[in-house]
Write a structure and sequence with these properties.
alpha+beta; OmpA-like domain-containing protein; elongated; 60s Ribosomal Protein L30, Chain: A; 4-stranded mixed beta sheet; 4 strands
């Protein structure tokens, strides 16, 4: 009986040593980075006061959101498409639209976005979000849309 107990003890000891010496499973692959907060979108809208290239206070958050989306999704191109309402001449609105697109581009570049990714598309009053008669100040039309093209979704 003592021999059986000794044999079982020896088997248990050898099994424990073998389990410790066995190679452990490789660590799991790293998790992909977390997406920026909020829903995934391929565009972010920045609103401007009528007649101005400045951004509304709430739109500063939109620029930050655009930068986060650009950093996370690494698009091949970022289109900065700027629009105006119908107040003023179409020529002055095209100039205003160009100024808005350049202001948003500057903000993106200052936040670390590669300037070579950015394509400006000033639209003036030609593509309003809300159609209006001429010389109507429509706040929704005073916007710049930051569009991400050919995004790369993280693997995982």
């Amino acid at each position: 009986m003592a021999g059986v107990t000794l044999t079982l003890a020896m088997i248990a000891f050898l099994l424990a040593v073998a389990l410790q010496a066995a190679p452990s499973a490789p660590p799991p692959p790293p998790s992909p980075p977390s997406p920026p907060p909020g829903p995934h979108t391929d565009e972010v809208i920045v609103y401007h006061p009528s007649g101005s290239t400045g951004t509304r206070a709430v739109s500063e958050h939109a620029i930050d959101a655009a930068v986060q989306q650009i950093r996370f999704y690494k698009p091949a191109k970022v289109i900065v498409q700027s629009h105006t309402d119908t107040v003023g001449s179409s020529d002055s609105n095209m100039a205003l639209s160009t100024g808005r697109a350049e202001a948003v581009r500057r903000a993106l570049v200052e936040a670390g976005v590669d300037a070579q990714l950015i394509e400006l598309q000033p639209m003036g009053e030609t593509a309003p979000a809300v159609k209006t008669a001429d010389d109507v100040a429509e706040p929704v039309n005073n916007r710049t849309v930051v569009i991400l093209r050919q995004i790369t979704l993280p693997k995982g």
